[in-house]
Write a structure and sequence with these properties.
The protein has 202 residues and is mostly helical. The chain has two domains: 121 residues, Orthogonal Bundle (Cyclin A, domain 1); 73 residues, no CATH class. It contains nine helices and two strands, in the order ααααααββααα. Strands 1-2 form a two-stranded antiparallel sheet. A hairpin with a 5-residue loop joins strand 1 and strand 2. Helix 1 crosses helix 3, helix 3 runs antiparallel to helix 4 and helix 3 packs across helix 5. The longest helix has 23 residues. It starts with a helix and ends with a helix. The C terminus is likely disordered.
């Protein structure tokens, strides 16, 4: 059997194994996330699941996704105990945790990682409430909204939104400093002063 054919066969088997457990014990979203991970593994140059037991891979795939989505936290829904996954696939807990760690490192998985997080986790990601400014400073999005509202109100009052730090301010100052009209006004004032002095002297 060619490697490509073997990869596709094991891929289908892993998808079937993870799907059966997820649909029975968790939900369809977990099944889809497992399928996404298995498909991504199959596209790697060195396909990891070509070696090792399929049951261990299936359990570890579900386990790794569950770890970053708080699957083992009773306060969350859905909830499944890690031991239940191991018992279902008849594999040891230590083997699953070690393999799950390899998978997390393989895909750089962590809490609130978009690629393998559930919709609920993505929506409740606390980092969504912060943004990095071009200066590198991290601020809350609420602060940005307040600044935008304040900025809009200033413009509504008719005041300029050009600050001393902005390029527009520098250009404006330079124009005012070298404005020919201003020079003409200065000359006019000088001439008037001369006329007034002449009248006084007369």
């Amino acid at each position: 059997m060619r490697d490509r054919d073997r990869i596709e066969q094991i891929k289908r088997e892993l998808i079937s194994l993870t799907n059966d457990f997820c649909m029975e014990r968790i939900d369809e979203e977990y099944s889809d996330l497992c399928m996404r991970m298995i498909d991504k593994m199959a596209r790697k140059k060195n396909v990891p699941f070509l070696s090792g037991k399929k049951d261990l891979w299936a359990a570890s795939i579900i386990y790794s996704i569950g770890q970053i989505n708080f699957l083992f936290d009773r306060s969350f829904e859905p909830f499944v105990e890690g031991a239940d996954i191991c018992r279902h696939f008849s594999v040891s807990r230590s083997s699953v945790t070690n393999k799950a760690k390899q998978i997390r490192e393989m895909f750089k998985m962590s809490y609130f990682s978009d690629e393998f997080s559930t919709q609920r986790i993505r929506e409740n990601n606390p980092f969504n409430q912060f943004v990095m400014l071009p200066s590198g400073i991290i601020v809350a999005t609420d602060q940005i909204k307040e600044l935008l509202i304040e900025h809009a109100s200033i413009r509504t009052d008719g005041e300029s939104d050009i600050t001393q730090d902005s390029p527009e301010y520098t250009k404006t100052v330079r124009i005012e400093e070298h404005d020919p009209a201003s020079e003409e006004e200065t000359d006019d004032r000088a001439n008037n002063d001369k006329k007034q002095r002449s009248l006084l002297e007369f």
